[in-house]
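Write out this protein's structure.
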Amino acid sequence: MEWYLKVIKNYAVFDGRARRTEYWVFTLINVMIGVVLAILEAISGLFGILSFFYYLFILIPGIAVTVRRLHDIGKSGWWFLIGFVPFIGPIILLVFTCLDSYQFENEYGPNPKFE
């Protein structure tokens, strides 16, 4: 939960670097919250209202943590846009988010693993 809250606190921070742990814990908790919201909506008959507002709130931090994750492997944040290329784009973005951090300091800052 610490990693999730760290991303929320850095709501629209697009500079710096994000470790794999920060990115993937944030993603996992978002999936879990999405499942809970879907169940609540199915029970209450709200038909996506809760999910809509939650994902609207989490959109900017999600993009920001992805950009920081790309910075961590030495890629520009603009690589985020490759996710919009049909079929192959999301696969490339998935591979990028799974790669280990660039070991040394890069143009985006020091390695967060060693801070």
